[in-house]
Amino acid sequence: MAVTIDSVIYLCLVAILWGVTNPFMKKGALGLEDVKATSFYGQFVKEIAFLITNLKYLLPFLVNQCGSVLYFLTLQSTDLSLAVPVSNSLTFVFTAITGWFLGEEKVHRNTYLGMMLVLCGTTLCCWDKVNKTVEL
């Protein structure tokens, strides 16, 4: 399947949407552990009600789901062996960066090293796929 620069850009956008929203959903879900019910099903219903009525959780969740829709649409025109590693690996990078900006935790030197290795690996993967498409 042909891999274009557009596909790579869309996959990076998916990673941004997924990665940036993860820390916001985590913050929005604060207080979920305080929701209590007497039965398993009651607990499930109360937790769902808590989440869908909480805008601090719901808005990032909806943006995250927009990323999922974009991912689904991008899969129609891109190679799966490129889509999965690019979107999933870059999601971790954007989650770490966003968490750092939100003050979740201090970023360790090894985290920076890991992010650089992820970026290098993703770049090589994209470069290889795009170059193979151009050669054909």
How would you describe what is shown here?
It is a multi-pass membrane protein. Belongs to the TMEM234 family. The chain crosses the membrane at residues 7-25, 82-103. Keywords: Membrane, Transmembrane, Transmembrane helix. With 136 residues, the chain is an all-alpha fold. The chain has one domain (5-131). The protein is built from 5 helices and no strands. It has helices at residues 5-28, 40-52, 55-75, 80-101, 109-135. α1 packs antiparallel against α3, α1 packs across α4 and α4 runs antiparallel to α5. The longest helix is centred in the last third of the chain and has 27 residues, at 109-135. The protein is globular and about 60 Å long. The mean pLDDT is 89.
Which key features would you list for this structure?
single chain; 136 residues; mainly alpha; 5 helices; 79% helix; globular
Summarize the structure.
Helices cover 79% and strands 0% of the residues. It is an all-alpha fold. The protein has one domain.
Overall number of structural domains: 1
Radius of gyration: 18 Å
Sketch the topology as an H/E string, one letter per element.
HHHHH
Structural class: mainly alpha
Percent of residues in β-strands = under 5%
- How many strands? 0
N-to-C span: 11 Å
Task: Give average pLDDT, whole number.
Answer: 89
Uncertain regions spanning at least 5 consecutive residues: none
Biggest beta sheet summary: none
Shape estimate: globular
Share in helix: over 70%
What's the total helix number? 5
